[in-house]
Amino acid sequence: MKISIIVPVYNGEKYMRRCIDSILSQTFSDIEILIINDGSTDSSEQIAKEYTQKHDNILLINKKNAGLPQARKTGVENASGEYIGFVDVDDWIEPDMFNQLYNGCINNDADISCCGFWWDYETSKELSNKSDDSVHLLNGISAFEKLHTRKSIFQYAWNKLYKKELFEGVVFPTGNFVGEDYYIVTQLLGKSKKVAWIPNAYYHYIQSKNSMSRGGYTDNYLIAYKNYRNISQNLIKQFPAQKSYIENYCLTEYASFIVAMGKNNKYNHEMIQQIVSYARSHKKQYLHADYIDTKFKLSVKAICYNYRILIKGYQLIGRLKRK
């Protein structure tokens, strides 16, 4: 088996058929599909069983609910393919995605290949990258840097294909939290020697109003904050030359946590104080980085002066968009 495609499922009955059908429609045929049912309470398990009865290359694994990262870990542990790919149950993929990713690995002797993707909104969609159609080959450190500068290589686990051997020793966190993909993908990039980037978009990332990253503040953000702090400290020790990139990346994420608090007026004041302190100590470095968008720099300036300005600004933008 060449490719194992892992589909973690938790109460995914609404989108599950579209997701699985898009994988079955792949032009690359030597695949297995591992559906990891993470303790669903809806009809997801029954839908998965229907597919396993019709397709010999689909395997269903039921487990107690432990969150997306642990479901992915279960998939990796049970995968028989030489390469590993992920597709989230509420998303779908273009027919040529894994053929292109596989060729990206094989033709370039790459450990990881990445493709572009679409942010799919209710009435529109947005392309992740606007570039030429050629495949770009990067070493692991260059890819690591591009992730942290938010250029070409994104933190998401699902728009990539990985050599299975890369997962040896990789730590999968527990629970669900914003930024869970970053925790895993940075470890994998750090172990890779070559990364192929294919700018063409083959993955459709569905933007739901109820998604964790678009909703208001919950305790998941506190988990995310603690994980970002821990993983960033470890990454800086491992890659000291990337220190400023890692710190700047995390500061952008921290700013988004404060914005989330303003969406539902639920504030973690201890976290806010820590983020304000972090922003002020890294402000000069952040503002002098030429790869950071102006809107993010303005957000950090607002946090340093008074975080309430950032919240009021995003609340105003939200009201204007709804008109």
What does this structure look like?
- With 323 residues, the protein is an alpha/beta fold.
- Helices cover 48% and strands 19% of the residues.
- It contains ten helices and ten strands.
- α2 links the parallel β2 (31-38) and β3 (58-63).
- α7 packs antiparallel against α8 (243-264).
- The chain is globular and about 60 Å long.
- The relative contact order is 0.11.
- The model has no long low-confidence stretch (mean pLDDT 92).
Q: Rg to the nearest angstrom? A: 20 Å
Reported for the largest beta sheet, the result is: 10 strands, mixed
Annotation field: number of helices? 10
Termini separation = 52 Å
**SSE string:** EHEHEHEEHEEEHEHEHHHH
Helicity, in percent? 40-55%
Which oligomeric form is depicted?
Answer: single chain
Give me the secondary-structure category. Answer: alpha/beta
Unreliable stretches covering 5 or more consecutive residues: none
Report the mean per-residue pLDDT as an integer. Answer: 92
Percentage of β-strand residues: 15-25%
Q: Please state the overall shape, judged from the principal axes of the Cα atoms.
A: globular
Extended strand count: 10
